[in-house]
Amino acid sequence: SSVFKTVFSGLKDSGAKFELKELARDYEIGYDSLVAVLAYLYTGKVKSLPKGVCLCVDDGCSHVGCRPAVDFIAEVLYAAFVFQVPELIALYQRHLLDIIDRVAVDDILVVLYIANMCGNVCEKLVSKCVEIVVKSDVDIVTLDKALPQPIVEQIIDSRLELSLDKPENVGFPDKHVRRIHRALESDDVELVRMLLKEGHTNLDEAYALHHAVAYCDAKTTTELLDLGLADVNHRNSRGYTVLHVAAMRKEPKIIVSLLTKGARPSDLTIDGRKALQISKRLTRAADYYKSTEEGKASPKDRLCIEILEQAERRDPLHGEASLSLAMAGDDLRMKLLYLENRVGLAKLLFPMEAKVVMDIAQVDGTSEFTFATINSNKLNGAQTTVDLNEAPFRIQEEHLNRLKALSR
């Protein structure tokens, strides 16, 4: 490749390193995709699709057009474009054209974004993707977030020409909705509250929860949920519930926040998918089944699937939080001690999972073992105001509240 000749001839030191991002600035190329291109350059042969990398976790999937397969092929296409390997560009563009009708429209947006970056060499792929998106139900906000403005305008114009949309429906939401969206993207929930008081719209009409879950920080979503002014099972114009959108976002904290507020994991999309299936179709088998070292964070994709699986088994996700005020003092103390110990141990062995759960439960560490003082050698947290060893032990509201939180 002439690209490598140019790059390496410019390196003065034989031991100098070259960052891939200096070449591939517009999109991140995964390790497996890079290896596929380099293998072709070194051997002249196209390797078969790597096992596990192009497979999702859904057993019912044919793995032809699921997200892991699409991501790999699209990344190889972009890498081939960056390294100027025309044979690979033609091959993988043809591959995407062959499967594009079996790819979910939200994943086609990813393909379209990459193909557009490749310019004229991927003109056929761009044209096919635009044709599919034009006839889809993808809304203007999603298009604007996922694609360059010229492509968005092309899609809007095509919809008007084909009478697929009325002129009044092709633009962005009205100014009141846009203000709420901008406030959310600025993490300013207090401003959202003030805008709602003006009475021009409400959170459901603005699809505010959907927007926050898709594009905002997890903390902002939690604060918006805490307002208690939105239907957590509300559907947007495409028939997606907030939990469906959260599954696409692949953020465990957001998923758990929604479930604890009453989101239904059993709700189906228009094409019959639950949040769990959405999450599985987005997750690479190689990542899901990869063993995690003790004390290291688990992949977010796997956490999302495990949370949703638990939610389906226990729908809704409230754990053992329904407690009786008549519970005996000694029993309550033993249960609290057990839960405090369990959370402390979880922090050591599964830090990512523990952090997600404790954030959602809104408890900072545990009474027996605060997160700040736990280390791998010794569990020696300081006592807090919730003293489980005081005698005689008396049931107080703070004990019940903490037990509910830790039982989630």
Residue share in β-strands: under 5%
- Poorly predicted regions: 316-330, 368-395
Secondary-structure element string: HHHHHHHHHHHHHHHHHHHH
Coarse shape: globular
The average pLDDT score comes to 82
**Radius of gyration of CA atoms, rounded to a whole number:** 25 Å
Largest sheet: none
Tally of separate domains: 3
Task: Count the E strands.
Answer: 0
Q: What is the chains' assembly state?
A: single chain
How many separate helices? Answer: 20
User: Could you give the distance between the termini?
Assistant: 56 Å
Task: Estimate percent helicity.
Answer: 40-55%
Given helix and strand content, the structural type is mainly alpha
Folded structure, characterized:
- The protein is mostly helical and 408 residues long.
- The protein contains 20 helices and no strands.
- The protein folds into three domains: 2-135; 236-317, Serine Threonine Protein Phosphatase 5, Tetratricopeptide repeat; 329-406.
- The model is unreliable at 316-330 and 368-395 (pLDDT under 50).
- The protein has helices at 2-9, 31-43, 67-82, 86-99, 105-117, 123-134, 140-146, 149-161, 175-185, 189-197, 208-215, 218-226, 242-249, 252-260, 275-282, 285-288, 300-314, 329-349, 351-361, 397-406.
- This is C2HC NPR-type domain-containing protein.
- Belongs to the plant 'ANKYRIN-BTB/POZ' family. 'NPR1-like' subfamily.
Which tags fit this structure?
single chain, 408 residues, mainly alpha, Serine Threonine Protein Phosphatase 5, Tetratricopeptide repeat, 3 domains, 0% strand, zinc, NPR1/NIM1-like_C, metal-binding
